[in-house]
Amino acid sequence: MAILKTLTSAPLRELTGEQIGPYAGWAITTVGDVADYKHFLPRILELAVFDQRWHGLDPPIIASKLSRGGWRTWPRDERAAVQALFAGAWRHGFEQHPDDGDPTGWLCGIAIAGGDLDAALEAWLSSTSANAALHLAEFFGSDAERLIKEKANRNFWNDAGDDTIEKMRRWLLSEPVLDRLLSASVRPEEQWRIDSALLILDAVTQERHG
Q: How far is CA 125 from CA 46, 94, 131, 157, 190, in A?
């Protein structure tokens, strides 16, 4: 197809998000096959770490493509490299300030691709940084509330499966998560983020037990 022809005419490392993003969004389902996607995957992942403006560079989209491409049958070293990148990007992301980006797409991607979700959640809770706590608070204002309330529209999390969604729901309502929010040490001007999350958590907890 024309898209693949255009992409293969340039060195892989020189492809920009503008060039590869549209392909990455349509890959496997509409454009090319699994072998094509594997060829472009290193550059797709590299760009996803720094620039997710294109739909095909969203970590959950990448994870869904991997699942559709039967990636659990790929060689172990290939799977390990991808899993390490997702885990590393996630851990780096939640240590940055929320105003600098939302890393929870990497968490969702880990869940969709069958990565070590328990380790990812443990890393989040065990981080003592204010930024990690702020990201946890921000999560309650976005995907977390939908996951807890069992709404039909859970965005990309639907691709993770019911068992994983139930695991996330239990985790979000757990004492360690509440304790992490209550013990968060953030700047006074950002305390409202924590307070908002606590209000949401209290409301959904009462709703579930009301």
A: 26, 10, 11, 20, 19
Rounded CA-CA distance 103/109 in Å is: 10
| Residue pLDDT, tens place only, 110-163 | 999 999 999 999 999 999 999 999 999 999 988 888 888 766 678 899 999 999
Cβ neighbours around 205 below 10 Å, total: 13
**CA separation for the pair 203, 185 (Å, rounded):** 23
* Radius of gyration of the CA atoms of the chain, in A: 18
Q: What percent of the chain has pLDDT over 90?
A: 74
Query: How far apart are alpha carbons 132 and 180 in whole angstroms?
Result: 10
Which residues are 31's β-sheet partners?
27
Interatomic CA distance for residues 68 and 135, integer angstroms: 29
Spacing of C-alpha 24 from chain mean position: 17
CB 106 within 8 A of CB 59: yes
Question: For the chain, how many helices (H) and strands (E)?
Answer: 12, 0
- pTM listed for this prediction: 0.93
Q: Whole-angstrom Cα distance, residue 52 to residue 62? A: 11
| Token pair in block for residue 120 | 């990812």
> CA-CA distance, 177 to 184, in Å (whole number)?
11
Q: How far is CA 126 from the centre of its chain?
A: 18
Token match 């995907």: residue? 143
Of the CA atoms within 13 Å of residue 55, those in its CB half-sphere come to 7
